[in-house]
Structures are given as C-alpha cells and as structure tokens.
Amino acid sequence: MFTYTLRRLAFAVPTVLVISLIVFLMLDMAPGDPTGSLPLTIPLEVREQIRQALGLGDPVLVRYFKWLHMMVIIEPSHMLANATGWNIAIEGPRILSWQTRSPVGDIIVQRIPQTLWVVGLGYLFGILIAVPIGVISAYKQYSWFDQTGTFISMVGFSVPTFFTGVVFILIFSVWLGWFPSMYDTTHRVRDWDSFLFQVRQIAMPVAVLALFNASQISRFMRASMLDNLNQDYVRTARAKGLMERTVLLVHVLRNSMIPVVTVIAIGIPTVFTGAIITEQIFRVNGLGDALIRAIYVSDWPMVQTITFIFAILIVLFNLIADVLYGILDPRIRYE
Amino acid sequence: MPDGALPVLDVRNLKTVFRTRAGEIHAVNSVSFQLRPGELLGVVGESGSGKSVTMMSLIGLLPSPPAEVRDGNVMLGDKDLLKIGEDGLRAIRGRDVGFVFQDPMTSLNPVFTVGFQIMEPLRRHMGMDKARARKRAVELLELVGIPDAERRLKDFPHQFSGGMRQRVMIAIALACDPKVLIADEPTTALDVTIQAQIIELVKGLREKLGMAIIWITHDLGVIAGIADRVMVMYGGQVAEHGPVREVFANPAHPYTRALLKTVPKLREPRADKLRVIEGQPPMLGAHPTACPFRARCEHAFERCARENPPRREIGAGHDVACWWDHRTGEPV
C-alpha cells in the first residue's frame, strides 16, 4: 500500500509540472496588458517602465522558472507562516498581483475560508443527503420514494446552479424575505444572534450547492447499490441468517461505497472550480470570485496562481481517490 | 440409513410461484419429500426444473416479490418454516440450515476477511464473543481442510483458489452445526479434480458430524457416488424418487431413463454424438393440468395430456409420477 502510494505520488509530480508550464504559457500568450486598465494619460515610456518593473522584460522561460520558484517555494512558505504563526516564511520576491500590488498568496489566504465554508458545507451536506437517499432508493427500487428521489436528482443534476441560485434568491429573499441574497464576508460570529445570521446568510448558497452535489452523488450511490444487491454474496449473507440491516449496511454498503468514495474524492476540486458561479450569484468573495475579478482586469499572476492551485487540487484528489480505492478494496491493494 | 427415524425435514405440497409482468411462472408444483437424519438426498434435473427454487423456498431465500410460496408445509423438527415468518426464518438460516452455493468465486463478500465472514453466523446465532468465535473459526477452517488456518483467517477471499473458497463456504455453512446442509451445485463451478476433493470432503464431514444433506446437481455420477436417495425433478415437479441404487438400476420414469441414457459410457464404443433428450423444458405458465414431460416423452399417450400423473409407489420407498408402467410397457 505504501509503495503503491509512493508510485502514484511519483507520477503526480511531473503531471503537476507539465500543467504549470501549460497554465503559464497559455496565459502569457493571451491578449491583454497589465497597463491596459491604467489611465490613458500615462506616456508610453512610463508604461514600458511599469512593464519592466513587473518583470515582463525577461524571456518567457526565465519568467516561468522565476514564477515556478515563487509558486512552489516562497508562496507556500508564507501561507504556512500565516496559517501557523511560525516564523518559517522564506525571504525573496513574491508573486505580485498586477491589480492590487499585494502578494497573490496573501489574497488567496484571505479568500480560502469563505470558499471552504460555503462550498465545503455544500459538498458535505450533499454527501450526507445523497448516501441515505441512494441506499433507500436502491433497496426500495421503483417505490414512490425511489421515483421521487430519482426525479428530483435528475432535475437537480440537469438544472445549472446559476439557475437554481437565482430561483432561490427570488423565492426565499425577494418573495419570502427569509434569507439575505448577498453573503456578508465581514460578518463575525460573536453571539447567538450573529450565529443565527451567519446560518441564514450561508443557507442559500449551501442549499444550492448541496442540491446539485446530492443529485449527482445519490445517482451514483443508487446505481452502485443496485449493482451489489444482486450479487451472490448478498444471498450468502442472507443465508447466514443475518439481520436485513446488517446485510444492507455492512455487506452491501461497504462494497457500494468503493466507487462512490472515489467519485466523491475526485469531485472535491471540481466543486471548487464549479462553485465560481455560485459564488458570483451570492456575492461570496471566495476563491472563484477572486479568479473572475482577476480575469476581468487581465491580472495574469493572480489567474495563473489560482488556476495552478485548482490544477494541484485536481491532481491531489485524484491521488487521494486512488489511495482510498486501494484502502477500500482489498483486491486492489496487493497488485 | 435409519429408516424409521423421524424426518428432520418434511416438505409437503410445496408450491412456489413467480409473479412477472408476463404472468405467473409456476416454478415449484406440489413438491413433497422427506429428509431423515444423517441422510444424503440427491436432487437432479436440468436447468429450470425447480431444484434450486424448491430449496430456496424452504428457508425464504427467494426475493419476494417476485417469488411467492403459495402453499405447503415445511416442517423442520416441530417448526413449520412457512409459518414462522421472516424473523423466525432468519433465526433458522445459518443455524439449523446451512447453505452452500454454486459459485464460490462470487459467493463470498470480496471486501471482508474470510475470518470475519465465518465468525458472523457464530456471533449472530451462538452469541459468541469475538475471541470464542475466532477460536471456533480456526477449528472450522481446519475441519474443512484449509492449512495454516490461524493465519488464513486474516486473508480476503481473492487470496484463495476456487476450491479453497468453496471449503470456506462449507465452513460458514457448518459454523453453527446445522441439522440440514443444502448444497446447491457446490461443485459445478470447479475443476474436476477439485470437484472430487470437495465431494470427498463433504462425505467425510457427514460421517464426522452426522447432519443431513440435500445435494443439488446436474451430475448423475456425483449422485451415484454419494447419495442415499435421489429425487429427479422435472418441470417443477418430482418425476421420480427413491433409493439411489434402485432408481439407477430400475428407472421408472421416461425422463429418468432418458437422463441415464445421456450419460456417456466409458466401456462402450465411442459415439460420434453425445446423446440428448430432444425438445425443450416446458414453460411453466400455469398450474400444470397435464404431465410436463409429455412433449418430449416417447411413451406419451392421450391420458398424459389430460391428467397430471400423481406420484405412485412402485417399490420400497421408490415412487414415480407417470401414467406409463415401465415394467409392462403399457399404460397403468
């Protein structure tokens, strides 16, 4: 199992490096100019000096390696130092946002908690809803519960979050006035009332994301359970006289979770990227919001960094999915 | 075998129906048989003859719906298995009745260790704690001839060969010292040499433990080698039933006779083609009012289409369901 993990990890490193080169080059070749959003009164030679000051005078490969060095060594050390309070930050030039002139890493660290709270809770609730629904749907196949669940998950999966988000805002904010339509990041939870406000403002984006994720995962869960319910080992478990609950929740569920857990793990980074739209609708200033704003003003260091983080997350969670598969399925482990 | 002893299992007029969209399938029709303590009853018949369905009906292993046990009595000791309900059956399954299935490659749960799977019925039915169940599991693995039992408990099913997995299945079925062991084609999915090993194992276990066994198979040779009595099934009914020597020496039902003729003989000149019974097994769309074998029967006459023959005694413990008398070659 350990060598298996190491081997997978060894494959992941070159993958990430190739992605980093592609991300860097693509954005480097993209049209747009860091001084494009500055006032037109600035003379051309001053603009050129600004470009030089931003380090754009170097050849592209030099800039790539400088960026890579900052990306994988300096910025993470600062992020860690910020997060832990230890004095481990490595000195050196940092990736600066063209727009704000502040280090990209600091902005990202500011943005991550919002994304984690909203998107993370959305995904977590999605899983918590999806697994029991999938299990019951499969066990009571073609019952009214299954029919309703399958219909709702089909709708939830086919209707995009930017549509359900707007519908939720219309119904629950505009008509009913239950929840605020905008997410207030500056809100701090101090007491019971402010906690309730936090619950109310987070409810809608979390519900939209949870509905979407639950739709997808419950379908996987149901299909996987159905596959396993007809297996011979289920009949063996019943022939042993085990309780139906044990047959279902120990024997069948454990096998059914194998593909579902990998789907869940692989889905985590796509939820980060997919939540960009939900963050826009509910004005959550998370990572996705930062990415969209940076694209608007051609802030390439910011876009490169966030895109690269997404890429790392995707590779990382694919790796986690592989390892989980090995842990859950003993047949994989020894190969 | 002790003849006068009370049967451990007494099945009367068992009738099982599958409800499908296309209508009802009458898979088991008025099947009756008895199983005496320590006896090995062989059940033969082609696919779809109702062998497995009969045995699964006894202990409620058929998925319901679509299956429905519509009629009959199944007495295990003094309990009627068709009346004790799902909870009662659960207490019987794995404890009083052990089951071994056809395909050992898929019958064990791939994600749990063999030890866990053997210990499960022990902890469920015998109320054993982990340590005692473990000890018993080691004994069971040794009993079914798996070497290095202590260590193998921690292994997963995929680390065992097919024959070894079937031994594990037998260990699970025997875990709680059942009165009856039902083996549903336990050697069909195995190599011939492994088949022989499993058959020898079951023979030995029967002598050692003394449980009664129902052995379902296609293989007449296996039955001849191990069974005390044989029950030939066709179209969801018992065609012929009797002591194994008697049935093999004096087959009375045209189906049994045809079945025995299909067995290739080693000492006879080699035939170009294997012998077959012409025709198809019947569709069991309705409760039979005629003999199900008549369409393939060389002796069929007018009465066979009009009345379903009841089982009639033709010798000591030997009965046949046929309107044709094999001794005279005339209708009864």
List the helices and strands and how they pair.
The complex is a heterodimer of chains A (335) and B (332).
Chain A: H1 2-29, H2 44-53, H3 60-84, H4 104-139, H5 144-158, H6 161-175, H7 192-229, H8 232-239, H9 244-281, H10 287-296, H11 300-328, H12 330-333
Helix pairs in contact in A: 1-11, 3-4, 4-5, 4-7, 4-9, 5-7, 6-7, 7-9, 8-9, 9-10, 9-11, 10-11
Chain B: E1 9-20, E2 23-35, E3 40-44, H1 51-58, E4 67-76, E5 79-80, H2 85-92, E6 97-100, H3 104-107, H4 114-125, H5 130-143, H6 149-152, H7 162-174, E7 180-184, H8 192-209, E8 212-217, H9 220-226, E9 229-234, E10 237-243, H10 244-249, H11 254-261, H12 302-306, E11 312-315, E12 318-320, E13 324-325, E14 330-331
Parallel strand pairs in B: 3-8, 3-9, 6-7, 7-8
Antiparallel strand pairs in B: 1-2, 1-4, 4-5, 9-10, 10-12, 11-12, 13-14
Keyword list:
heterodimer; A: about 325 residues; mainly alpha; MetI-like fold; 12 helices; about 75% helix; B: about 325 residues; alpha/beta; 4-stranded antiparallel beta sheet; about 30% helix; globular
* CATH superfamily annotation of chain B: P-loop containing nucleotide triphosphate hydrolases
CATH class of chain B: Alpha Beta
Write down the oligomeric state.
heterodimer
Roughly how many Å apart are the termini of chain A?
A: 9 Å
Query: Helical content of chain A, roughly?
Result: over 70%
Q: What global shape of chain B is seen?
A: globular
Helix/strand order of chain A? HHHHHHHHHHHH
Which pair of protein chains has the largest interface, and what are the residue counts? Answer: A-B, 21 and 29 residues
In which range does the helix fraction of chain B lie?
Answer: 25-40%
CATH fold name of chain A: MetI-like fold
**SS strand fraction of chain A:** under 5%
